[in-house]
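ugh ok fine here u go
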Amino acid sequence: MKKLIPLFSFALVLFGLHLTLILFLLKDQRLSFILGTHAFLFFFLFVGNLAMRKVKSIDPKKVGMTFLAITVFKMLFSIVFIFVIKQNSSLNKNEIILNFFGVFFLYLIYEVVTAIKELK
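structure:
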Protein backbone atom coordinates (compact mmCIF):
# COMPACT_ATOMS: atom_id res chain seq x y z
CA MET A 1 0.00 0.00 0.00
CA LYS A 2 2.92 2.35 0.68
CA LYS A 3 3.99 2.07 -2.95
CA LEU A 4 0.61 3.46 -4.06
CA ILE A 5 0.96 6.73 -2.11
CA PRO A 6 3.09 8.42 -4.83
CA LEU A 7 0.49 7.35 -7.39
CA PHE A 8 -2.37 8.98 -5.46
CA SER A 9 -0.23 12.04 -4.70
CA PHE A 10 0.64 12.50 -8.36
CA ALA A 11 -3.00 12.24 -9.40
CA LEU A 12 -4.20 14.69 -6.75
CA VAL A 13 -1.51 17.27 -7.55
CA LEU A 14 -2.15 16.98 -11.28
CA PHE A 15 -5.91 17.34 -10.75
CA GLY A 16 -5.39 20.38 -8.55
CA LEU A 17 -3.07 22.04 -11.06
CA HIS A 18 -5.38 21.28 -13.95
CA LEU A 19 -8.41 22.59 -12.10
CA THR A 20 -6.58 25.77 -11.11
CA LEU A 21 -5.47 26.42 -14.69
CA ILE A 22 -8.97 25.81 -15.99
CA LEU A 23 -10.58 28.13 -13.45
CA PHE A 24 -8.20 30.96 -14.30
CA LEU A 25 -7.85 30.53 -18.07
CA LEU A 26 -10.92 28.73 -19.43
CA LYS A 27 -13.87 29.61 -17.28
CA ASP A 28 -16.41 27.89 -19.54
CA GLN A 29 -15.08 24.35 -18.90
CA ARG A 30 -17.24 22.12 -16.75
CA LEU A 31 -15.96 20.55 -13.57
CA SER A 32 -17.65 17.27 -14.51
CA PHE A 33 -15.54 17.03 -17.68
CA ILE A 34 -12.31 17.69 -15.79
CA LEU A 35 -13.24 15.28 -13.01
CA GLY A 36 -14.33 12.61 -15.50
CA THR A 37 -11.10 12.95 -17.46
CA HIS A 38 -8.93 12.55 -14.38
CA ALA A 39 -11.03 9.66 -13.06
CA PHE A 40 -10.77 7.88 -16.41
CA LEU A 41 -6.99 8.35 -16.63
CA PHE A 42 -6.40 7.54 -12.97
CA PHE A 43 -8.31 4.30 -13.36
CA PHE A 44 -5.89 3.16 -16.07
CA LEU A 45 -2.90 4.43 -14.10
CA PHE A 46 -4.01 2.50 -11.01
CA VAL A 47 -4.91 -0.72 -12.86
CA GLY A 48 -1.73 -0.56 -14.92
CA ASN A 49 0.42 -0.05 -11.87
CA LEU A 50 -1.18 -2.96 -10.04
CA ALA A 51 -0.91 -5.18 -13.13
CA MET A 52 2.78 -4.41 -13.57
CA ARG A 53 3.48 -5.17 -9.91
CA LYS A 54 1.56 -8.46 -10.12
CA VAL A 55 3.30 -9.49 -13.34
CA LYS A 56 6.68 -8.57 -11.84
CA SER A 57 6.03 -10.90 -8.91
CA ILE A 58 5.15 -13.74 -11.30
CA ASP A 59 7.58 -13.16 -14.21
CA PRO A 60 9.75 -10.01 -14.19
CA LYS A 61 10.60 -10.45 -17.87
CA LYS A 62 6.99 -9.69 -18.86
CA VAL A 63 6.67 -6.28 -17.16
CA GLY A 64 7.51 -4.40 -20.37
CA MET A 65 4.92 -6.27 -22.39
CA THR A 66 2.34 -5.67 -19.68
CA PHE A 67 3.05 -1.95 -19.84
CA LEU A 68 2.68 -1.95 -23.61
CA ALA A 69 -0.59 -3.90 -23.49
CA ILE A 70 -2.09 -1.58 -20.88
CA THR A 71 -0.99 1.48 -22.85
CA VAL A 72 -2.62 0.16 -26.03
CA PHE A 73 -5.90 -0.50 -24.21
CA LYS A 74 -5.71 2.92 -22.59
CA MET A 75 -5.27 4.56 -26.00
CA LEU A 76 -8.18 2.65 -27.51
CA PHE A 77 -10.50 3.48 -24.62
CA SER A 78 -9.31 7.10 -24.75
CA ILE A 79 -10.43 7.41 -28.35
CA VAL A 80 -13.85 6.07 -27.41
CA PHE A 81 -13.98 8.38 -24.37
CA ILE A 82 -13.13 11.46 -26.47
CA PHE A 83 -15.63 10.49 -29.16
CA VAL A 84 -18.44 10.11 -26.62
CA ILE A 85 -17.58 13.40 -24.90
CA LYS A 86 -17.40 15.26 -28.22
CA GLN A 87 -20.79 13.92 -29.31
CA ASN A 88 -22.60 14.61 -26.03
CA SER A 89 -21.04 17.88 -24.91
CA SER A 90 -21.69 21.50 -25.73
CA LEU A 91 -18.07 22.38 -24.90
CA ASN A 92 -15.67 23.57 -27.57
CA LYS A 93 -14.33 20.46 -29.33
CA ASN A 94 -10.75 21.75 -29.56
CA GLU A 95 -10.66 22.57 -25.85
CA ILE A 96 -11.95 19.09 -25.03
CA ILE A 97 -9.17 17.47 -27.05
CA LEU A 98 -6.48 19.84 -25.74
CA ASN A 99 -7.52 19.35 -22.10
CA PHE A 100 -7.80 15.59 -22.40
CA PHE A 101 -4.56 14.90 -24.23
CA GLY A 102 -2.57 17.41 -22.18
CA VAL A 103 -3.45 15.43 -19.08
CA PHE A 104 -3.20 12.10 -20.94
CA PHE A 105 0.45 12.69 -21.81
CA LEU A 106 1.32 13.77 -18.26
CA TYR A 107 -0.20 10.54 -16.94
CA LEU A 108 1.64 8.62 -19.66
CA ILE A 109 4.98 10.17 -18.66
CA TYR A 110 4.36 9.12 -15.07
CA GLU A 111 3.48 5.60 -16.22
CA VAL A 112 6.66 5.36 -18.29
CA VAL A 113 8.81 6.46 -15.35
CA THR A 114 7.03 3.92 -13.12
CA ALA A 115 7.49 1.17 -15.70
CA ILE A 116 11.20 1.95 -16.03
CA LYS A 117 11.57 1.71 -12.25
CA GLU A 118 9.75 -1.65 -12.29
CA LEU A 119 12.04 -2.93 -15.05
CA LYS A 120 15.23 -2.18 -13.09
